[in-house]
Amino acid sequence: MKEDTLLLGFDIGGTKIALSLGDARGNIRASARIDNVDTTPEEVTPLMISMARKMVEESGASMHDVGAFGISSPGPADYRNGVMTHPTNNLKWHNVPIRQIVSDGLGLPGFFENDANCAMLAEWFFGAAKGAQDAIYLTMSTGIGAGIIAAGHLVTGRCGQAGEVGHVVLIPGGIKCNCGLSGCYEAYCGGKAIAARMRRELAETPDAAVVRFAGSLENVDMVALEKAVRIKDAYAVRLWDEIMRLNAQAIGGFINSLNPEKVVLGTFAWAIGDLFMEPLLRYVPQFAWREMLDVCDIVPSALKRDIGAYAGIAAALNGLYELGEFDLPR
Ligand SMILES: [Zn+2]
To answer: 146: helix, coil or strand?
Structure first.
């Protein structure tokens, strides 16, 4: 594959599908989006195909210049066969063989990966983990998931579900998680779970700083929590310390498990910045061996909010890399 071969990416989210056209060097040539994905696959998939073709045409290229496409999708799904089985976002899509449909429509080979794996691949090809042989990316948003690179390859696991680190149990018998287990990492450190916890704990204290910053109890979120921590509100500081200690416990465990060169952290790490990174780096030596920490950079995402534009393209590149048609950038 030539470096200027184009790749098409589809990033299927909860409210939109982002399309992008880029090359193996990470230059994004064009992008587009489909809103209102709360419709049937029969309505949306033809649109994905026609918009992708139009995007290629309008960029002055032809479909012959495109090597492959990649689809980044929320799980769970049948990743081996490229089928969206029952995505947990609001898509009314069940058992949709999305990779085959798009492949037939575009006349291109395609690859399909979950969104956390695609974010890892995007950081690996184009961002903070470029050149690493061993790395982990954590989504750190409403939920927590991961993509793992080990010995220069994406780890997918026996049934394609490797990287579900948000459901590693940190506290046996702890908070009940949506997944059915109790005490999961995500049940303590995922944005949705933190908001739910604050709503429970602050129900009787409407004048709490977090509630004031949020405007109402229903609206408490990570932004309000961050503001309250910054003014050193006692409740917020205590909660934040507990959350960051648990983040360090989880991430330290992953470091001891994988001995990675890079740990790349998504949304909270770059959006909250030092307030997130400083306690994490302070606590993590309690949970990981010094010799592994010495060779590991724990850093926020380099691609930040643009990561979706690279997600599908990275899945396409990784597919070609695994087929031996693309060499890693060094
Ligand atoms: Zn869980």
So the answer is: strand
